[in-house]
Amino acid sequence: MAEKRNIFLVGPMGAGKSTIGRHIADQLHLEFFDSDQEIERRTGADIAWVFDIEGEEGFRKREETVISDLTEKQGIVLATGGGSVISKEVRNKLSARGIVVYLETPIEKQVARTQRDKRRPLLQTGEDSRKILEDLAEKRNHLYSEVADIVVRTDEQSAKVVANQIIDKLDF
């Protein structure tokens, strides 16, 4: 039997990685995982709690472990956390174990999609969320591009349309 391929979605918070990932998994009959949800399942606590207790460094260690474990599976779609690409180890595992899709998203869309979401610890600091997202983009966008096999913009299209664009670009 042919080896099943993996699809890993990277990009900033608010890019739609989880929603688009579910569409892709459904259409290709693959198993879907979200690294943040897996961290919550394993710890029995939400991401905000992990950040509060362990800080971002502790969270990133957990994230590395979860992504390492999940990328060893075959035939999955994985929505990664926006900051997961900070880790060179994570970038290497994503590149080596599947097709990496970067969901490129303008800051305006991120602000609109995250403004009422209380589950994003990096946006709960009391600082201007646009400024935070701009700073994160400056630090991370080149890492998303570096690791990506495919880049898709998520501007004005529905998650289903973006999922179909990705599927059309896959070499399955």
TrEMBL record:
<dbReference type="GO" id="GO:0000287">
    <property type="term" value="F:magnesium ion binding"/>
</dbReference>
<protein>
    <recommendedName>
        <fullName>Shikimate kinase</fullName>
        <ecNumber>2.7.1.71</ecNumber>
    </recommendedName>
</protein>
<comment type="similarity">
    <text>Belongs to the shikimate kinase family.</text>
</comment>
<dbReference type="InterPro" id="IPR027417">
    <property type="entry name" value="P-loop_NTPase"/>
</dbReference>
<keyword id="KW-0418">Kinase</keyword>
<keyword id="KW-0963">Cytoplasm</keyword>
<dbReference type="GO" id="GO:0004765">
    <property type="term" value="F:shikimate kinase activity"/>
</dbReference>
<comment type="subunit">
    <text>Monomer.</text>
</comment>
<dbReference type="Pfam" id="PF01202">
    <property type="entry name" value="SKI"/>
</dbReference>
<feature type="binding site">
    <location>
        <position position="157"/>
    </location>
    <ligand>
        <name>ATP</name>
    </ligand>
</feature>
<comment type="function">
    <text>Catalyzes the specific phosphorylation of the 3-hydroxyl group of shikimic acid using ATP as a cosubstrate.</text>
</comment>
<dbReference type="InterPro" id="IPR023000">
    <property type="entry name" value="Shikimate_kinase_CS"/>
</dbReference>
<keyword id="KW-0057">Aromatic amino acid biosynthesis</keyword>
<keyword id="KW-0547">Nucleotide-binding</keyword>
<feature type="binding site">
    <location>
        <position position="36"/>
    </location>
    <ligand>
        <name>substrate</name>
    </ligand>
</feature>
<keyword id="KW-0028">Amino-acid biosynthesis</keyword>
<keyword id="KW-0067">ATP-binding</keyword>
<keyword id="KW-0460">Magnesium</keyword>
<dbReference type="GO" id="GO:0005524">
    <property type="term" value="F:ATP binding"/>
</dbReference>
<keyword id="KW-0808">Transferase</keyword>
<dbReference type="GO" id="GO:0005829">
    <property type="term" value="C:cytosol"/>
</dbReference>
<dbReference type="InterPro" id="IPR031322">
    <property type="entry name" value="Shikimate/glucono_kinase"/>
</dbReference>
<feature type="binding site">
    <location>
        <position position="82"/>
    </location>
    <ligand>
        <name>substrate</name>
    </ligand>
</feature>
<comment type="pathway">
    <text>Metabolic intermediate biosynthesis; chorismate biosynthesis; chorismate from D-erythrose 4-phosphate and phosphoenolpyruvate: step 5/7.</text>
</comment>
<feature type="binding site">
    <location>
        <begin position="14"/>
        <end position="19"/>
    </location>
    <ligand>
        <name>ATP</name>
    </ligand>
</feature>
<dbReference type="InterPro" id="IPR000623">
    <property type="entry name" value="Shikimate_kinase/TSH1"/>
</dbReference>
<feature type="binding site">
    <location>
        <position position="60"/>
    </location>
    <ligand>
        <name>substrate</name>
    </ligand>
</feature>
<feature type="binding site">
    <location>
        <position position="140"/>
    </location>
    <ligand>
        <name>substrate</name>
    </ligand>
</feature>
<feature type="binding site">
    <location>
        <position position="120"/>
    </location>
    <ligand>
        <name>ATP</name>
    </ligand>
</feature>
<dbReference type="GO" id="GO:0008652">
    <property type="term" value="P:amino acid biosynthetic process"/>
</dbReference>
<dbReference type="GO" id="GO:0009423">
    <property type="term" value="P:chorismate biosynthetic process"/>
</dbReference>
<feature type="binding site">
    <location>
        <position position="18"/>
    </location>
    <ligand>
        <name>Mg(2+)</name>
    </ligand>
</feature>
<dbReference type="GO" id="GO:0009073">
    <property type="term" value="P:aromatic amino acid family biosynthetic process"/>
</dbReference>
<keyword id="KW-0479">Metal-binding</keyword>
